[in-house]
Write a structure and sequence with these properties.
- It is built from 13 helices and 10 strands.
- It is an alpha/beta fold and 386 residues long.
- The chain has 3 domains: 216 residues, Spore Coat Polysaccharide Biosynthesis Protein SpsA, Chain A; 107 residues, no CATH class; 41 residues.
- The radius of gyration is 26 Å and the shape is globular.
Length: 386
């Protein structure tokens, strides 16, 4: 009997976190007997391979696949996992993250009840210091959105395209030949876009958080997150072109604005922070200029990035570099002021909480008695000192 759910995890050099990731699946309320976990090791050179083999030795439904050559990007390992999967439904996760203990059960019960092809939810950002934040709420007080197709609620295309925190009917994915593009980033954008365009039945749980996306210590500072190298930015461009061509081929150009506006703004922000040389930056701008020209032709407004986007689309790369440098200067100043204000806010918040605690204590009999005693002692000391 095939499992209900296949979970596919590309893994690479993640010995510090992989056990926590796999344990989050073992602890699923739906029961590990209802799933298979496919771990595709992208030629790790630390202890990761041994760890996933140990889990496979203890649990028959944990399946390790060891690639003999590093692919460098997650598209290929995910596709290999797809071909191996036998579950009725498919899920994905990153190798250092965790699912909430009821995630698989919640998704499975809802998607089977509604007969949908796709279900997904919001998720948490999990910081190493224990702090947890949530990804944005785009639908206000709506608890869930259920549509027959994406045309009924186009705003679903503006949600995060991350491949995790989603469940897909496997027969739907295989019958429509939906796969990850290999050798590029933004591969999840391409996969999710294809799925949304073809799905018959999409469910979004707006008030449920199924996933914990880990922000490691080295990424805790936003300025660190923004620093991307030349290869990262180039493979992102390749992924964006791939998704653009999917929309053109499907004759779904009406979705170009809602999909690309925020993604290309993100790319521009990363470009501003990149440590690439000036020559490499110009080459990146040349590579992406055609895409910006195409997207801008659909009257996409890039807000505060408009001047930079227009310079790139017109091939004015020296001007674009100057604009990006100015924007980076002012953004760093704003970040510095924001951190300063936050520090002061945190200090004020601590003072307010301390005062609240004092007031709460005074409202008790023992607290009031202690206050009166201390006040009398203070007055007597002041009197005799005088």
């Amino acid at each position: 009997m095939n499992p209900k759910i296949s979970i596919i995890i590309p893994v690479y050099n993640i010995e510090k976190y992989i056990a926590q990731t796999l344990n989050s699946l073992l602890n699923q309320r739906i029961g590990p007997e209802n799933m298979e976990v496919i771990m595709v090791d992208d030629c790790s050179n630390d202890g990761t391979a041994q760890i996933i083999d140990n889990y496979a030795n203890k649990h028959d439904n944990f399946i390790p696949i060891h690639l003999t050559e590093n692919s460098g990007l997650p598209g290929k390992p995910r596709n290999i996992g797809l071909e191996k999967a036998t579950g009725e439904y498919l899920m994905f996760m990153d190798h250092d993250d965790c699912y909430a203990s009821d995630a698989l059960e919640t998704f499975y019960n809802k998607i089977t009840t509604e007969g949908a092809d796709v279900i997904f939810s919001r998720y948490n950002y999990y910081f190493e210091n224990g702090r947890i934040t949530q990804n944005p709420n785009l639908f206000g007080k709506k608890k869930e959105i259920i549509v027959d197709n994406i045309a009924e609620e186009e705003r679903l295309l503006s949600t995060a395209p991350a491949i995790w925190a989603k469940m897909f009917k496997r027969s739907f994915i295989m019958n429509n030949n939906i796969r990850f593009p290999e050798g590029m980033l933004a591969e999840d954008l391409s996969f999710v876009t294809q799925a949304f365009l073809k799905a018959r039945g999409i469910i979004y749980l707006n008030y449920y958080f199924s996933y914990y996306y880990r922000i490691r210590d080295s990424d805790a500072d936003k300025s660190t997150i923004r620093i991307r190298n030349k290869k990262y930015l180039k493979t992102m461009i390749d992924g964006y072109y791939h998704t653009y061509n999917i929309l053109k081929k499907s004759r779904k150009e009406e979705y170009i604005t809602i999909i690309f506006k925020d993604h290309l703004k993100f790319w521009l922000n990363c470009f501003m922070y990149t440590n690439a040389t000036a020559e490499d930056k110009k080459k990146l701008l040349y590579d992406v200029s055609s895409l910006f020209k195409k997207i801008i032709s659909y009257n996409v407004d890039f807000d505060e990035y408009s001047a930079l986007a227009n310079s790139i689309s017109h091939g004015q790369f020296n001007s674009a570099l100057r604009i990006s440098e100015l924007m980076l200067y002012y953004q760093k100043r704003e970040d510095k002021l924001r951190r300063h204000h936050k520090k002061n806010e945190d200090k004020l918040r601590r003072q307010i909480n301390a005062k609240k605690s004092q007031v709460a204590e005074l409202q008790t009999l023992s607290g009031y008695s202690k206050y009166k005693t201390n006040n009398m002692i203070h007055r007597l000391k002041k009197r005799f000192k005088g």
